[in-house]
Specification:
The protein has seven helices and no strands. The chain is mostly helical.
Length: 108
């Protein structure tokens, strides 16, 4: 998918949604690469089930931008559910960034 996007080909997101509904995306790094090349990240994010997207966010690489991309490009930014990809992304982003700042604070 990344190579197709780099070459300027468009992706049929309805077809992708059907495939990804049957076969979960397992590689958070690869999905992050797809989002980074995608001209319409919102369509791509909307093509992935909430459960799969939450799993990808929770298992993303430490330096991944996946949580940030999901927060920025999610069409559905509901905060009424802990199983919402937007909430999962916000929590992951805050947790990872706050922890790094807390570790650098001298409290003595």
């Amino acid at each position: 998918v990344v190579q197709s996007l780099k070459r300027g080909f468009s992706i049929n997101w309805d077809d992708a949604k059907n495939v990804w509904a049957e076969k979960f995306i397992m590689d958070a790094k690869a999905f992050d690469a797809v989002l980074s090349q995608c001209p319409n990240p919102s369509a791509c994010i909307s093509s992935v089930s909430d459960r799969n997207l939450c799993n990808l966010i929770e298992n993303q690489h430490k330096h991944s931008k996946l949580a940030e991309r999901v927060m920025e490009f999610s069409v559905d930014k509901k905060i009424d559910s802990s199983s919402s990809p937007y909430c999962t992304a916000a929590w992951k982003y805050l947790r990872d960034n706050l922890l790094s700042k807390i570790k650098n604070i001298d409290i003595t």
